[in-house]
Design brief:
2 copies of one chain form a homodimer. In chain A, the strands form 3 sheets. The first copy, chain A, has an 8-stranded mixed sheet with strand order 1-4-8-5-9-10-11-12, sandwiched between helices. A two-stranded antiparallel sheet of chain A has the order 2-3. Chain A is of the alpha/beta class. Chain A contains 11 helices and 12 strands. Chains A and B meet through helix 3, helix 4, helix 5, helix 7 and helix 8 of A and helix 3, helix 4, helix 5, helix 7 and helix 8 of B.
């Protein structure tokens, strides 16, 4: 506690970014059976690729995204140069996942609001947005949908499947559901299932959305409104759990938010229920920004997929048995100050893999930033991932040379 | 982590309760100047007393309440025998704070919704409820109001001032503001100020209330509605922070809520955004119950008083200097699994008192229940308080005998 927080790590120079990228779109007409018993057909997945698939098709890496991210992993768009991919510090030429050696795929999950078919898309049965009629999805459903995309792209086996947080859960599910298709699996700041407290936070966020009068039972599109208030509260709760107690204290402390240049006034309370502390201003800003672009039904869908993920459930709670089919080599990374998905949760994954005799690299990174650390450029974290993928790239190159 | 949680402690037998009690009411016409610069006049405080004030008036103990409690500390009401005081396990004949030896006062704070003047009370200026015009209050304002009540009751000096959580902050403020009037000070599961994360959770709760369309800028009384949705979300957030991660896991786990007697069905997901897990059912129930009786303006007022409490602020952040005036003997208690007001925060208080050469007893109780532990009957906790007050009672008796 109270350890000094290093300054924010600067993103690497633009020159090393993948540069201008373009999202692509793939349509799937064949029905995808879902874990709930429902199915979905005529859906589309949006994705991006970076780097070049080698002739042997052995250098593909799939990046799975978390709650608030998308297929836009790296680079920028020609018509939106400020919109940099969410893992641009991780994926690019010369970066830890080196696009000069790997063919990297970012895919937007089914049910998302960033281009793939989701609750905002027209329901073929009615011609109106799915809304609440969009099926409830699970991590496993996403993986099956991603596998179909891999089929279309001609990738039989991934050199790596990788993700942070909810993305790490997808990587784990890939290793279990398609063991022959995953050579290496990377789960960062993840967990084998949500804790009761995790579910509780998700539930409060969902209640804030569902009870917002502008939600209209999920049919708010028809009313030309958005449940902004609920989304704001949901995002504020999320943000508190993404940051460590310490980094929040370091960044905002109990500093009062004052526009005045009068020092005396700046240190006085205003006795108001409006913004008084910097942290309040920050959270409201984050909430408002989020509510301007994120779909409320997608928020419900993704948090529920998180709640439901529990591969050990079908094995009497025995995670080792649940992971027995997985044959990949694993890299598991956690961050000491992550209280959302604590190192303890990552260690559960590691232990279950070791019981099965798997090769596992585990890094517990002493980073101050909480859960958000998986998106930031901690040098130790970056070095671990770089070294791990470097080894994979060497092995891939050797196989090709044979 | 994952330590076994002992069964809930049973309340002591009814025979040892203070029995039937009656709330009393005191009116104050003289204006009370507030820290904000505003003042309030013509207000009332509701309170209860248990035990008998001795002739020397040296055996009075003041109990300060936290967010959701009131003056109803112990016993039951004749017309509401199910409504037991919130600290009935702590205060009563033969209990740790023994009403056969002490004269105990429970007081409802100004701004509360349980009888003392608050936002629901008529504003003398308009004849309508104060609503948002009720002044913003601080912990120090409460203490000054309580001191006036003590004056009226003829208590010059308290044998003890005691509270848990926000109540502990009031006890601390008493010791600083009225050092001659506090012989012993008890701060349980408390903190010298809120952390940034604490403020953040309060802010989310307030936003949920304020953005509820039924809040009407705090004038919902005029519209005959209550911002139930906001209050529910606020209470759900609160509950998550009151419980330890472990006790939540132990009590609810990932258990599915099923009415079916069909075992197979009970272990299957229903793929719904409605209640799926027991924890969701619990939180919704708590939220709904709370929203049926708690005033939304009071919730804002009390959480803001929490935010503002920071005795070190006027001393360049130096808590030792802030507590320098306090001359009481102190008992400070914290609970290992309390992540809302962690033991570390209590240790800050202890250290600042020791710098000033005060006599401090500090107990860090290994209890699994999180912040809620201060309301429960952990045997070690009860024993510490019992022994501490036993010593005080003996000293009081000796002085009387002289």
């Amino acid at each position: 506690m109270n350890q000094p927080i290093p300054p924010n790590f600067q993103p690497l120079a633009d020159a090393r970014s993948v540069g201008v990228v373009q999202a692509q779109r793939m349509r799937f007409d064949e029905a995808l059976p879902l874990r709930s018993g429902a199915s979905i057909s005529g859906y589309e997945l949006v994705y991006e690729t970076y780097g070049t698939l080698n002739a042997a098709r052995t250098n593909a890496v799939l990046i799975c995204h978390a709650l608030n991210a998308s297929h836009h992993v790296a680079g920028v768009y020609a018509d939106d140069p400020g919109n940099t991919g969410w893992w641009d510090n991780m994926v690019g030429p010369g970066k830890p996942v080196d696009t000069e050696r790997f063919f990297v795929i970012g895919v937007n999950n089914l049910g998302s609001c960033f281009g793939s078919t989701g609750p905002m898309s027209p329901n073929p049965a009615t011609g109106r947005p799915y809304g609440p009629d969009f099926p409830v999805l699970t991590v496993e459903d996403w993986v099956h949908a991603q596998a179909r995309l891999a089929d279309r792209l001609g990738i039989e086996r991934f050199a790596g499947v990788m993700g942070g947080s909810l993305g790490g859960m997808q990587a784990l599910a890939w290793a279990c559901l398609y063991p022959q298709r995953v050579a290496h699996c990377v789960a960062i700041a993840s967990a084998p299932k949500l804790s009761t407290q995790n579910i509780a936070f998700n539930e409060v966020a969902r209640r804030a959305i569902i009870t917002d009068p502008d939600f209209h039972g999920g049919r708010f599109y028809d009313h030309d409104v958005v449940p902004k208030r609920g989304l704001q509260v949901a995002r504020m709760i999320g943000h508190i759990t993404y940051l460590s107690d310490d980094v929040m204290a370091e960044k905002f402390g109990r500093t009062l938010r004052r526009h005045s240049s009068d020092a005396a006034l700046r240190s006085e309370y205003q006795f108001t229920y409006d913004i008084e502390f910097e942290i309040e201003s920050y959270l409201r800003y984050q909430g408002e920004k989020f509510s301007s672009y994120f779909d409320a039904n997608t928020y419900l869908l993704i948090t529920r997929a998180l709640d439901y993920f529990d591969p050990a459930l079908a094995h009497d709670g025995d995670l080792a048995r649940a992971l027995a089919q997985a044959t990949a080599d694993f890299l598991v990374v956690s961050f000491t100050t992550d209280w959302r998905f604590s190192p303890e949760r990552s260690r559960e994954i590691v232990e279950a893999l070791l019981v099965n005799g798997r090769r596992v690299t585990y890094a517990e990174v002493d980073a101050p930033h909480g859960h958000d650390a998986f998106l930031l450029e901690d040098p130790q974290y970056m070095a671990v991932v770089r070294s791990w993928f470097g080894r994979i790239a060497d092995a891939v190159a050797q196989t090709e040379a044979v």
